[in-house]
Amino acid sequence: MAADGSCAHSLTDLQGNFSSPNYPSSYPHNLNCTWSITATPGNYIYLQFSNFFLEYGGSHCPYDYVEVSDSNYPSSSTQIKRCGDESPWCVWSTSKVLHVRFVTDHIVSKSGFTARYATYGNPGNGNCLSLNATQSKEILARRTQE
After folding, report:
1. Backbone CA torsion sign across 47, 80, 97, 124
2. pTM of the entire structure?
3. Among 134, 127, 122, 126, residue whose Cα is nearest residue 39
4. CA-to-CA distance for 110 and 96, rounded, in angstroms?
5. Backbone torsions φ then ψ of 2, nearest 5 degrees
6. Residue 108: C-alpha distances to residues 46, 63, 81 (Å)
7. 130 confidence band (pLDDT: 50, 70, 90)
8. DSSP letters spanning 22-47
9. Secondary structure of 56-97 in the HEC alphabet?
10. Beta carbons of 45 and 130 less than 8 angstroms apart
11. Residue 79: what pLDDT?
12. What pLDDT does residue 129 have?
Protein backbone atom coordinates (compact mmCIF):
# COMPACT_ATOMS: atom_id res chain seq x y z
CA MET A 1 0.00 0.00 0.00
CA ALA A 2 0.99 3.60 -0.04
CA ALA A 3 3.58 4.68 2.51
CA ASP A 4 0.92 6.33 4.68
CA GLY A 5 -1.18 3.14 4.74
CA SER A 6 -3.86 4.75 2.60
CA CYS A 7 -5.43 3.00 -0.34
CA ALA A 8 -6.86 6.17 -1.90
CA HIS A 9 -4.74 7.94 -4.48
CA SER A 10 -5.16 11.16 -6.46
CA LEU A 11 -3.18 11.33 -9.72
CA THR A 12 -2.87 14.70 -11.47
CA ASP A 13 0.31 14.40 -13.58
CA LEU A 14 -0.01 14.46 -17.38
CA GLN A 15 1.05 10.80 -17.38
CA GLY A 16 2.00 8.18 -14.85
CA ASN A 17 1.97 4.61 -13.64
CA PHE A 18 0.37 2.78 -10.75
CA SER A 19 -0.12 -0.81 -9.64
CA SER A 20 -2.03 -2.93 -7.19
CA PRO A 21 -0.51 -3.13 -3.69
CA ASN A 22 2.48 -5.54 -3.48
CA TYR A 23 2.65 -6.03 -7.27
CA PRO A 24 4.12 -8.37 -8.62
CA SER A 25 3.62 -10.33 -5.40
CA SER A 26 0.11 -11.29 -4.35
CA TYR A 27 -2.15 -8.42 -3.39
CA PRO A 28 -3.61 -8.27 0.14
CA HIS A 29 -7.10 -9.49 1.04
CA ASN A 30 -10.08 -7.23 1.78
CA LEU A 31 -8.93 -4.21 -0.21
CA ASN A 32 -11.01 -1.32 -1.46
CA CYS A 33 -8.45 0.91 -3.21
CA THR A 34 -9.16 3.90 -5.44
CA TRP A 35 -7.14 5.94 -7.89
CA SER A 36 -8.71 9.16 -9.15
CA ILE A 37 -7.01 10.47 -12.29
CA THR A 38 -7.71 14.09 -13.15
CA ALA A 39 -6.70 15.80 -16.39
CA THR A 40 -6.82 19.51 -17.11
CA PRO A 41 -10.19 20.84 -18.36
CA GLY A 42 -10.91 19.85 -21.95
CA ASN A 43 -8.61 16.82 -21.86
CA TYR A 44 -9.34 13.09 -21.77
CA ILE A 45 -7.56 10.16 -20.13
CA TYR A 46 -6.12 7.04 -21.75
CA LEU A 47 -5.62 4.19 -19.28
CA GLN A 48 -3.89 0.90 -20.15
CA PHE A 49 -3.55 -2.18 -17.98
CA SER A 50 -0.47 -3.98 -19.32
CA ASN A 51 -0.44 -6.77 -16.73
CA PHE A 52 -3.72 -7.86 -15.21
CA PHE A 53 -4.17 -11.06 -13.21
CA LEU A 54 -6.98 -11.16 -10.64
CA GLU A 55 -9.14 -13.93 -9.24
CA TYR A 56 -11.82 -14.91 -11.78
CA GLY A 57 -15.30 -15.81 -10.57
CA GLY A 58 -17.32 -15.47 -13.76
CA SER A 59 -18.33 -12.63 -16.05
CA HIS A 60 -19.89 -10.61 -13.20
CA CYS A 61 -16.58 -10.59 -11.25
CA PRO A 62 -18.04 -11.22 -7.76
CA TYR A 63 -14.72 -11.68 -5.90
CA ASP A 64 -11.69 -9.56 -6.89
CA TYR A 65 -12.15 -6.91 -9.57
CA VAL A 66 -11.18 -3.56 -11.05
CA GLU A 67 -13.95 -1.10 -11.81
CA VAL A 68 -13.37 1.96 -14.02
CA SER A 69 -15.82 4.86 -14.18
CA ASP A 70 -15.70 8.52 -15.16
CA SER A 71 -16.76 11.69 -13.38
CA ASN A 72 -20.35 11.23 -14.60
CA TYR A 73 -20.78 7.94 -12.70
CA PRO A 74 -23.09 6.97 -11.01
CA SER A 75 -25.51 9.37 -12.75
CA SER A 76 -24.40 7.95 -16.11
CA SER A 77 -24.33 4.40 -14.64
CA THR A 78 -21.54 3.60 -17.09
CA GLN A 79 -18.64 1.64 -15.73
CA ILE A 80 -16.33 -1.15 -16.81
CA LYS A 81 -15.68 -4.05 -14.45
CA ARG A 82 -12.92 -6.61 -15.09
CA CYS A 83 -11.38 -9.64 -13.37
CA GLY A 84 -9.34 -12.72 -14.28
CA ASP A 85 -6.45 -12.71 -16.72
CA GLU A 86 -7.12 -9.76 -19.04
CA SER A 87 -3.72 -8.59 -20.33
CA PRO A 88 -3.61 -6.05 -21.91
CA TRP A 89 -6.69 -3.84 -22.02
CA CYS A 90 -7.33 -0.11 -22.14
CA VAL A 91 -10.01 2.52 -21.54
CA TRP A 92 -10.65 6.07 -22.82
CA SER A 93 -12.48 8.49 -20.55
CA THR A 94 -15.39 10.65 -21.67
CA SER A 95 -14.46 13.44 -19.26
CA LYS A 96 -11.42 14.88 -17.50
CA VAL A 97 -11.75 12.50 -14.53
CA LEU A 98 -11.34 8.72 -14.40
CA HIS A 99 -11.90 6.63 -11.27
CA VAL A 100 -10.28 3.22 -10.80
CA ARG A 101 -11.45 1.03 -7.92
CA PHE A 102 -9.75 -2.23 -6.92
CA VAL A 103 -11.71 -4.57 -4.64
CA THR A 104 -10.55 -7.91 -3.21
CA ASP A 105 -12.20 -10.51 -1.04
CA HIS A 106 -10.75 -12.56 1.84
CA ILE A 107 -9.80 -15.81 0.04
CA VAL A 108 -7.81 -15.98 -3.24
CA SER A 109 -5.01 -13.53 -4.04
CA LYS A 110 -3.15 -13.15 -7.38
CA SER A 111 -0.37 -10.85 -8.62
CA GLY A 112 -2.72 -7.95 -9.47
CA PHE A 113 -2.08 -5.31 -12.12
CA THR A 114 0.12 -2.57 -13.50
CA ALA A 115 -1.37 0.38 -15.30
CA ARG A 116 -0.23 3.53 -17.05
CA TYR A 117 -2.20 6.62 -17.99
CA ALA A 118 -1.75 9.69 -20.14
CA THR A 119 -3.90 12.73 -20.88
CA TYR A 120 -4.81 13.91 -24.38
CA GLY A 121 -6.68 16.83 -25.90
CA ASN A 122 -8.96 14.61 -27.99
CA PRO A 123 -11.19 11.73 -26.93
CA GLY A 124 -9.75 8.40 -27.97
CA ASN A 125 -11.03 5.66 -30.18
CA GLY A 126 -9.65 2.47 -31.67
CA ASN A 127 -9.41 -0.85 -29.85
CA CYS A 128 -9.88 0.51 -26.33
CA LEU A 129 -13.07 0.37 -24.31
CA SER A 130 -14.85 3.66 -23.94
CA LEU A 131 -16.95 4.93 -21.08
CA ASN A 132 -19.42 6.05 -23.72
CA ALA A 133 -22.64 4.32 -22.57
CA THR A 134 -23.65 2.87 -25.95
CA GLN A 135 -20.22 1.53 -26.87
CA SER A 136 -19.62 0.03 -23.40
CA LYS A 137 -22.93 -1.86 -23.44
CA GLU A 138 -22.11 -3.28 -26.88
CA ILE A 139 -18.64 -4.42 -25.75
CA LEU A 140 -19.95 -5.96 -22.55
CA ALA A 141 -22.72 -7.75 -24.46
CA ARG A 142 -20.14 -9.24 -26.85
CA ARG A 143 -17.98 -10.39 -23.92
CA THR A 144 -20.86 -12.23 -22.24
CA GLN A 145 -21.67 -14.04 -25.51
CA GLU A 146 -18.09 -15.31 -25.92
Report:
1. positive
2. 0.82
3. 122
4. 31
5. -65, 160
6. 30, 9, 18
7. confident
8. TTTSPPPSS-EEEEEEEPPTT-EEEE
9. CCCCCCCCCEEEEEECCCCCCCCEEEECCECCCEEEECCCCE
10. no
11. 82
12. 76
